[in-house]
């Protein structure tokens, strides 16, 4: 969870407050690798992303790396320099001018929440110019960013997800509310298919509230997903892997008195986050195994975070067995404990999760006995040495 958004410093002030390189370090380099922490973006999550970028830059190992924040926003690509000025990024090679020297990063740590950093667009550009980066590739980013496409893909593999339907952008008038509610029921969630931080998301409890909710989600841009409500315990689990090791973090339980885990719950402290989650050892293992398996099936890279909800009740006969055997898992018991009837339902996959001091992932890293600095170093060095 990021800190409150009120009275945040401007981007220029944030840059000067970070432990960024001094003028001498820029000129000399000192043999350190230059890391561009790419943040901002063009969605409603811009400010959240800027805070994540500041968090990452502050945690990078300054003995190894020279970090620069690079903000992408509304067509502008700019490096935030130590003196509080900005330098235009040359999109031919992602270089910029700093203290009379041309600087080209060795690595991009992407922490844009939303477009263009979480939907594959930026990854495609970085691939074209041969720039190593921290996230999954174009296909994984595009798939996981579109909630409806992801849910249907994961359902085809036997993962339990809520029933949902898609309302295409510009086609909302062609959809009948009665048909939607007969299929999905009440209460339900209406959300942008490609949004985050719960912007544009509404919990709909009456038929009259459905159409305004669709309109609110549409204003965030793109298609809209109407999703069935599931009652249960919300949890989230982070994971990253390198060529040498796999790290599945302790699980966080999310408890809020709000109608759902909305923006205020996420960013204004209206939530309790319990790490490790109050789950049985058996259920904890199943969630962590599922997280690791999904990471491998999708072919993820860098840190991801998967959100789930634990519900009661056995899997329906229509649900396919999860393909564990093909990925080194002996059985499909990872999804449903038939004896205890605890069902793991996937909510969404975050491929550029929040990285401020109070976000889920840093909490889980600390609970695992690791430091954010060593995890960031692990990811960067594994990518550069691959």
In short:
With about 375 residues, the protein is of the alpha+beta class. Helix content is about 30%, strand content about 25%. The N terminus is likely disordered.
Could you walk me through the main structural features you see in this protein, from its secondary elements to its overall organization?
There is one protein chain. The protein has 386 residues and is α+β, with helices and mostly antiparallel strands. 30% of the residues lie in helices and 24% in strands. Strands 12, 13, 14, 15, 16, 17 and 18 form a 7-stranded antiparallel β-sheet that branches. Strands 4-3-2-1-7 form a 5-stranded mixed β-sheet, with helices on one face. It has a 4-stranded antiparallel β-sheet with strand order 8-11-9-10.
Write the layout of secondary structure elements.
Blueprint: H1 11-17, H2 23-28, E1 33-40, H3 46-59, E2 65-73, E3 76-80, E4 86-88, E5 96-98, E6 101-103, E7 107-110, H4 121-129, H5 138-145, H6 147-156, E8 164-167, H7 177-184, E9 188-192, E10 202-204, H8 210-219, E11 224-228, E12 233-241, E13 246-248, E14 252-255, H9 263-267, E15 272-274, H10 281-298, E16 304-312, E17 336-337, E18 342-350, H11 360-367, H12 372-384
